[in-house]
Amino acid sequence: MLTIEAAGGGRNLTYALLEAVGKSIVAGRFDSNPFPTEADLAKQYAVSRSVTREAVKMLTAKGLLAARPRKGTTVQPSRAWNLFDPDVLRWMMERNFSLELLRYFNELRHAIEPMAAALAAQSATLEGIARVKAAYQRMLDAETGRDEPLEADTAFHIAILEASNNPFYAQLGDMVSIALKTSIRFTNRVKGASIAKPPARR
After folding, report:
1. Which whole-number Å values give the CA distances from 97 to 57, 58, 70, 158, in the listed order?
2. Number of domains comprising the chain
3. Which CATH number is 25's domain given?
4. Residue 24's domain spans which residues?
5. In terms of Cα–Cα distance, which of 197, 105, 115 is closest to 160?
6. What is the pTM of this model?
7. Do 109 and 166 lie in a common domain?
8. 68-98, pLDDT tens digit by residue?
9. Is residue 83 part of a domain?
10. In this structure, how many other beta carbons lie within 10 angstroms of the beta carbon of residue 90?
11. Three-state SS across 5-63?
């Protein structure tokens, strides 16, 4: 029997089950195995049927599962997953963050961020401009150790999206935040490896 930990009652327990099962799906646990029934999931994770049912509904809404008559609930191929869903994107990156995934994300950024910046320059509200300035100041502070560089960088990108005054761009904030943080960690790790000093010669 698997166990999940959650504080605060049934709703948090639902999210804990969502996290556990979602990660398992993205990790490929059910690629060659049938997805369990709700009764089996409830038994495996020691949760109620109502908690299981709600978690399955949420996974279905994210495109990871599909319920069909006579076939029950099945795992969807990755092409059907909602990649703009922050949970799905995070699970994918935690599973296997690759150079190919980094390329896909950078291609998306190059498509949307310049236009978002142009829109922000044209139609940002005073509040939006203030947020961009505050986020930029955080980046300056991060250079002197007064702020966390990764958080400051991410905040600046999100401020630009929100200042575009376009609700579609603004809603990309969560997706950009998760993907940007992961890619920055990855590139910083590569940079650190590339500038590492060679061992001293004897």
Report:
1. 27, 24, 36, 22
2. 2
3. 1.10.10.10
4. 10-78
5. 115
6. 0.77
7. yes
8. 888 889 999 999 999 889 899 889 888 766 7
9. no
10. 21
11. CCCCCHHHHHHHHHHHHHHHHHCCCCCCCCCCCHHHHHHHHCCCHHHHHHHHHHHHHCC
